[in-house]
Design brief:
With 429 residues, the chain is of the alpha/beta class. It contains 15 helices and 16 strands. The chain is globular, with a radius of gyration of 21 Å. Bound molecules: pyridoxal-5'-phosphate (PLP).
Length: 429
């Protein structure tokens, strides 16, 4: 694969941007190669500046559930741009997107738009603290909730990928207020709540974790968590930035039939533009200014282009009654092919999947939490990643990230992926 132009751009980028990138995992550090520069993307494919074409399983880390540059979304965004890109005043699109979010996710009574998932979780945390009058939060090892100070304790995603310790720059007093429990282990939560009686304001969880690789939570674990939060007056916050509008119409909370108090969103609701949102019970949300006194604002919040892209994306899904069913049927074909190819080569690797998200862990042991995810052979993963890339399949450059399938992926993309996978495994084993 010729990467001359990408290599040149990356050399130049390193003079101007920290590590040459604007988000750490993009640097490809953990897979030992220089990153690629993408020139364009359409449907399930991305093309880099050297003209290499890839089947994309990142989907911008989740947002592109319809594939890249969907005709209707692009048309709507162009139309919106012609009417002005930002007003610093109200627009109609933000109401439409809010109503659409509520239509998909019944636990949402009121929702506030922000610009990223990070902003959504930070704001939800402030609200939970204000509502309960308590300070501490509980999160789970390997879960990622954006880069807010309070969440950079045993965080997943890029922090896990790069093997970084908890980030410098986070003060001790902030770190003290973040308690970490073990994913899928309710006893670990009981212990923390007991030890910090009447001090825990919120529990944050990715109900299906995507940021330590894909790890589902057990239903009885989530139910027990719900019960505990209700009894202890703790705000249960589902971080569905990744899983919202991805795993089902109503996200992971619909799959599990469990209602959180607050939910954070991002990714898909922006249709590829920068958006986040948080919402939930009216009683909590009406504490947000100007309805209430919890301050949270944003110059570009509810941006008309972003609202339009998000609304169009959700509308396309809403208009197709079988959207998730069809997406899952398509994914089944891919998963079956990947599993069979793996077994044919007598490799017993752990394959975690949920809806249109999956991770192949390079370990033979079950992966149910961060500790078991970390048993994966990341060097082997790096070789697999590189081999797949050379064969035209663009996976997330980390063992601790999920792959995303879009409705634009076709059977022939899957066939190509399955055969690349078989060859890649032959290369590395
Ligand atoms: C991506 C992600 C975030 C952070 O969202 P940004 O838009 O990158 O700030 C938070 N939580 C989860 C679960 C995510 O997957």
């Amino acid at each position: 694969m010729n990467t001359t132009k990408s290599d040149k751009l990356f050399a130049e980028a390193q003079k101007h941007l920290p590590g040459g990138v604007n988000s750490p995992v993009r640097a490809f550090k953990s897979v030992g190669r220089a990153p690629l520069y993408i020139k364009k993307a359409k449907g399930a494919k991305m093309t880099d500046v050297d003209g290499n074409k890839f089947i994309d399983y990142i989907g911008s880390w989740g947002p592109m559930i319809l594939g890249h540059a969907h005709k209707k979304v692009v048309k709507a965004v162009k139309h919106a741009a012609n009417h002005g890109t930002s007003f610093g005043a109200n627009n109609e699109q933000e109401i439409r997107l809010a109503a659409m979010i509520k239509k998909f996710v019944p636990s949402i009574e009121v929702v506030r738009m922000v610009n990223s998932g990070t902003e959504a979780t930070m704001s939800a945390m402030r609200l939970a603290r204000a509502f309960t009058g308590k300070n501490k939060i509980i999160k789970f090892e390997g879960c990622y909730h954006g880069h807010g100070d309070a969440f950079l304790i045993k965080a997943g995603s890029g922090v896990a990928t790069l093997g970084l310790p908890d980030s410098p720059g986070v003060t001790k007093s902030t770190a003290r207020d973040t308690l970490t429990a073990v994913f899928n282990d309710i006893e670990s939560v009981y212990k923390l709540v007991e030890k910090n009686k009447n001090e825990v304001a919120a529990v944050f969880i990715e109900p299906v974790a995507g940021n330590m690789g894909l790890v589902e939570s057990h239903k009885d674990f989530l139910s027990a968590l719900r019960e505990l939060c209700t009894v202890e007056n703790i705000v249960l916050i589902f971080d569905e930035v990744m899983t919202g509008f991805r795993l089902a119409r109503g996200g992971a909370q619909e799959l599990y039939g469990i209602k959180p108090d607050l939910t954070t969103f991002g990714k898909i609701i922006g249709g590829g533009l920068p958006v986040g949102a948080y919402g939930g019970r009216r009683e909590l949300m009406e504490m947000i200014a100007p309805a209430g006194s919890v301050y949270q604002a944003g110059t570009l919040s509810g941006n008309p282009l972003a609202m339009t892209a998000g609304f169009e994306t959700l509308k396309i899904i809403d208009d197709d009654k079988d959207f998730y069913k069809n997406l899952e049927t398509n994914c089944e074909y891919l998963y079956k092919g990947l599993r069979e190819a793996t077994e044919r080569l007598s490799q017993n690797l752990t394959f975690n999947r949920c809806g249109s998200m999956f991770t192949l862990f390079f370990t033979t042991k079950k992966v149910t939490d961060f500790a078991s995810a970390k048993k994966s052979d990341t060097k082997l993963f790096a070789r697999y990643f590189n081999s797949m890339l050379e064969r035209g399949v663009y996976l997330p450059p980390s063992q601790f990230e999920a792959c995303f399938v879009s409705s634009a992926h076709a059977k022939k993309d899957f066939d190509k992926t399955i055969s690349a996978h078989a060859s890649a495994l032959k290369d590395i084993f």
